[in-house]
Amino acid sequence: MSNALTVRNPEGLPYTEYEREFDAPAAAVFRAHTDPELYLQWIGPHGLTTRIDEHDYRAGGSFRFVQHGHDGVEYAFRGTVHNVREGEFILNTFEYEGWPDVVTLEYTRFEDLPGGRSRLTGRSVFPDLDSRKHYLEEGMERGMTEGYDRLDTLLAQAS
Questions:
Q1: What is the rounded CA–CA span in Å between residue 159 and residue 154?
Q2: Count of CB atoms within 10 A of residue 126's CB?
Q3: Residue ranges of the chain with per-residue pLDDT less than 50
Q4: Under DSSP, is residue 13 helix (H, G, I), strand (E, B) or coil?
Q5: Which residues lie across from 53 on neighbouring strands?
Q6: What residues does 106 pair with on adjacent strands?
Q7: What are the φ/ψ torsions at residue 8 (nearest 5 degrees)?
Q8: d(Cα 151, Cα 39) in Å, to the nearest integer?
Q9: What is the DSSP code string of 46-80?
Q10: Could you tell me the pTM of the whole model?
Q11: Is 158 exposed, middle or buried (0-12, 13-18, 19+ CB in 10 A)?
Q12: Alpha-carbon gap, residue 25 to 29, rounded angstroms
C-alpha cells in the first residue's frame, strides 16, 4: 500500500498517536467507521473474522464486536461513543474485554486533502504506560496497519 500508517509512542507519556492517508474523501473514510456493514469488512488484522453485536455511532451510543481466529479464540472489544461530528470527528472509549481494567479514550479526526484524498489522525490515551506497552506487545500496530490496508482496498472498490 502506498499510504503507510505512522504511529508515534512518545517516551514517558501514556498515549499513542497515529496518522494515515487514504485515496478517498474524508466522508467515505468516516462512513467506513460508522456504517456497521462497511466496518465489518475491514476492521482488524488479516486472518480474523468479525461479528458485530452493536454499532451505534452517535453521542451516547456504544459498540461491541468480536473477532475470531482460526484457533477458535475470541477477542471481544467494546466502547461508548461520546461525541460524533459527521464526517469530521469521533470520540469514544475502547476496551478489549480480555483486559477489563484498561479502557482507552480514542480521538479520531477525518480531514479532506486535495485531489479527493483524506487524512485520518487519532490518539489513544491509556490509563498508564504499562497498559500502552501491553497493547503494543500484543500487536496493536500490526492490527491497525492491516485493517487500514483492508480499508484502502474497500474504498478503492467503492469508487
A1: 9
A2: 20
A3: 1
A4: coil
A5: none
A6: 92, 124
A7: -120, 130
A8: 9
A9: TT-EEEEEEE--STT-EEEEEEE-TTS-EEEEEEE
A10: 0.94
A11: exposed
A12: 7
Distance CA 80, CA 107 (A): 12
**Backbone torsions φ then ψ of 102, nearest 5 degrees:** -120, 100
pLDDT at 159: 75
The amino acid that residue 152 corresponds to is: D
**Around Cβ 55, how many Cβ atoms within 10 Å?**
18
Q: What is the pLDDT of residue 1?
A: 47
104's grid cell: 482507552
For the record, the C-alpha cell of 88 comes out as: 469530521
Q: Which residue has the cell 454499532?
A: 55
131 is written with which cell numbers?
Answer: 497498559
Alpha carbon distance 100, 123 (integer Å): 20
User: What sections of 18-139 are H helices per DSSP?
Assistant: 26-34, 36-42, 129-137
Grid cell digits, residue 62: 456504544
What order of strands is seen across the sheet that includes strand 74-85? 6-8, 15-22, 117-125, 103-113, 89-96, 74-85, 62-68, 49-55
Beta bridge partners of 15: 125
Beta-bridged to residue 112, according to DSSP, are 118
